[in-house]
# Entry
Amino acid sequence: MHEVSLGATLRDYLTGQDVDHTTYEDLRQALARLLVEELGHPRELVEPRVRVRFDAPPAGDVASSPFSLSSPEASQPSESTADADEGCRVVDLTLRDDDGAPLCLVLFCPGAPGTYARESVAAARLFPGGPAPLVAVTDTRDALLVAAVDGAVLGEGMRALPQRDDLRRLAAEHPCPPLTPERVAGERRILGAYTAFLKRCCGEDVCLL
# Structure
């Protein structure tokens, strides 16, 4: 089943703003609550809906703007940025260090997490202000924790989602250096191919993946 709008809104757990109520948004909200209330991540350091571009971003694009701890809603989509989604993958949740550096991306997947691992690694490598050293992929019943530097699986199952106390250690143990321009181009092609496949498999008019 693919993600479709239910024609209503719900209150976002992290920002307090109204967001589109889709067939999977309840699961994303539960995931955000799990990260904060059970795994100990400060709410202000969990950022929702960050765009990762796989085309060349125009000057001043929102995805390349610096993260502001005082403005957690800065990444929220607006009508003026809606068209920017055409060339990007939206990361559901970003776990950040105290200085705003990305430590781990958390992506919800409507299927087996392993089938989304390569796409998620590409997003982590291209992440604005990154690369992000870690990426977790989950359908909220199963999960994979993956190192962005080499795609190695660091943990499986929901227990693999890192607690706050472990996050810096894991990130330090698996640093991902900046990519060369050639690697950036290759990762953009990979992320673009996966994203295009997801959108076209069921029709772009209804699928929100």
Remarks:
- Confidence is low (pLDDT under 50) at residues 58-84, 200-209.
- Residues 198 and 204 are 9 Å apart (CA to CA).
- The first helix runs from residue 25 to 37.
- The two ends are 11 Å apart (CA to CA).
